[in-house]
Amino acid sequence: MKTQKKLIPPHLGNLLKIYYKKNRINKSGLARAMNRSRATVQDYEERKSLQCNVLWDICVAVEHNFFADLAAQLPQTYTTNVPEDTTQAQRIAQLEEENKILKTKVDTLLAVVGKG
């Protein structure tokens, strides 16, 4: 491990509070979905940190990945075990191949019409 400057962890309660406000999350409904009291859900907003299973339950209840939000705050140089998303690269390669085929067909049509 390399020694690096200390990263200050985000205040999870504030992260939740901002998300709830922006997305108009009803805390009573959230509490019911999580099978917890409204006071408990309210308390989460005041906490600096939360257990992973609590954050997981909130993610599931609101269908939002707060873990990804946290991960996005770490430096890009940090490693991860998440597989690289290659769908975009595959789609680009597929479209490039399709483009080559279409160019060939256009050239053929122009040659047949006599404009090539």
Automatic annotation (TrEMBL):
InterPro entries to which the protein is assigned, alphabetical: Lambda_DNA-bd_dom_sf
Molecular-function annotations in GO: DNA binding
Annotated protein name in UniProt: Uncharacterized protein
Lineage of source species: Bacteria, Pseudomonadati, Bacteroidota, Flavobacteriia, Flavobacteriales
